[in-house]
Amino acid sequence: MSLLSIQHITAGYGIQSVLFDVSLDVAEGEVVAIIGPNGAGKTTLLRAILGFIRPNNGNISFKDQSIVGMEPEHIIRMGLGWVPQEESIFPSMTVAENLEMGAYILRGNLNNRFNEIYNLFPILKERMRQPAGSLSGGQRQMLAIARGLILQPDLLLLDEPTAGLAPNLVQMMLSKIKEVTDQPQRAVLLVTQTLDALRLCQRGYLLSSGKILYADTTDQLLSSQEVRELYFGGVARE
Predict the structure, then answer these.
(1) The most confident of 106-120, 121-135, 153-167, by mean pLDDT
(2) Contact of 226 with 232, CB cutoff 8 Å
(3) d(CA 182, CA 185)
């Protein structure tokens, strides 16, 4: 069953279109990748899904309901989570306070939610009373993902979660993302520029110049010489 369905959208900023006739879908419990070069429109696509940008044409449905024109907060309340590429934590707040901010729409006792997060990211429990700005780059990214998970979204959007991390932190971050994506009840749409992150996914879309050029299983994308030439320069770039 399709959880997210994007049908022939054209979208951009003002009169400048960035996406052209883009269609994709994510099923319940599925992990799907969007790959493509810088400037391809990957982040713009995520912003359109979240309601920050309204498509000029086409439709976006979440849980069989059109979400075009809805406010981002309402879309999030429907069960869609987002971890943007740019810094998305509050450095002067503690780790625990950052998580509380992520859970701002919830009411009642949040202990179970926090325990689930701390089980997934034990280092955050150890640092829960530290200012988030004192964390390492990898720990800050864990906190950003934890904030995206605190609402227990049905679909989590991850925008290049390993970007800017030191090489020794990338594998650690990928192992944590694998723990997230291994949960069968959660669907994930992952924007990535690394092969290792792509391997965490079941299917992928190649976005270039605002258009979907290829859509296939991860194995087929990884084995396609044409995809390698278009995106990886003919070699398997890690």
Answers:
(1) 121-135
(2) no
(3) 9
| Alpha carbon distance 198, 222 (integer Å) | 9
Name the residue type at position 14.
Answer: G
Q: Which two tokens stand for residue 82?
A: 């987002």
Alpha-helix residue ranges (DSSP H) falling in 121-224: 122-126, 137-149, 167-181, 195-198, 218-223
Q: Has this prediction a pTM greater than 0.85?
A: yes
Report the distance separating Cα 19 and Cα 45, nearest Å: 7
Which helix (H) or strand (E) is 49 found in, with range? helix 42-50
Which residue is it, tokens 């998305």? 88
- Number of residues that this document lists for the chain: 238
What's the CA gap between 195 and 202, in Å, rounded?
Answer: 13
Residue type for position 94: T
One-letter amino acid for residue 77 of the chain: R
